[in-house]
Every structure is written in C-alpha cells, then in structure tokens.
Amino acid sequence: xxxSLSVFLxxSLSVxLSVxLSxxxxVSLYVxLSVxLPACLSSCLPVCPSVLQGVCSLFIPRIGIxxxxxxxxxxxxxTLGSTxxxxxxxxxxxxxxxxxxxxxxxxxxxxxxLTLCAAFWWKNFGLALLFxxxxxxxxxxxxxxxxxxxxxxxxxxxxMCVR
Length: 163
Description:
It is built from eight helices and no strands. The chain folds into two domains: 3-59; 64-162, no CATH class. Helix 4 (64-87) packs antiparallel against helix 6. It has 163 residues and is mainly α. It has helices at residues 3-26, 29-44, 49-56, 64-87, 89-96, 102-121, 125-144, 150-162. The longest helix is centred in the first third of the chain and has 24 residues, at 3-26.
C-alpha cells in the first residue's frame, strides 16, 4: 500500500470516526454501533466491510440476531450457488453426493435448514447461534473435501494438539 493511500485511509477514518462519535452522543448507542460505525469502517476499510457489518448487526435490538442469522445462512447458500455456476448444476450435485462428501453435504444442508427453523419457527436464538457455528464447521469440512489429503492433515494436526 502506498504512503498516500495509507494517509488517505487514516485521515478519512479519523474524520469518519469523529463524525460517528459526535452522532453517538446525540443518538442512541444501538444506532451508532449498528449503522454509523459499520458504514464508516466499511467505507474506509474496504477489506472486510461485510464482516464488520455482519457482526455489528448483532447489536440491533430485537432483530439483530435474526438479521445476522439470515444473512449468514443466505451467504452460505450463495456460496454453494456460486460453485454450481462454475461447475454446472448437475456436475456440482454429483460431486456433492459423492461418497467422500455425502455426509458433509447432508450435515451442511441440515444445519442451513435448522438455523432458519431455530430463528423463525422456534424463536430460540441460542440454538440458532449453535447451528451457525455448526454451519461454519460443516462448511469447512465440506470445503476441505475438495483439497486432496486436507481432511487427513487436519485430523492429524488436531490429534497432535490434543496430546
């Protein structure tokens, strides 16, 4: 990153944060944390705006957790859809149902459905967040199935760490 770009980012971030903090003094803290601060950081730090906005959406009263769960689950569905776009739907579905990743696929899709059920139907947000964590783990395990020997290497690493 060039010096001028880093100076621009630091100046724009400081100006944006000062405006945001002055707005926070006049508006509620929830508005500041969920709207102003993520917008400020995402405009100044284009590296990870969706992560910041997703985490900050948790602080919106009454609907924050639901928004996070919906957008995270929708993001995982879009990720699966993008791989279908690259390989073609039938080839991707055949690969998903392959013997090496059929169980990971079933767990991943089950977690996607159960996350939405826990958020909307059962209204149990603790359970929904548990299913989000299971989504992360199952999607990681599913993704590792496409890299040769990655699952075995991860299992070996984890077994060395446990000892």
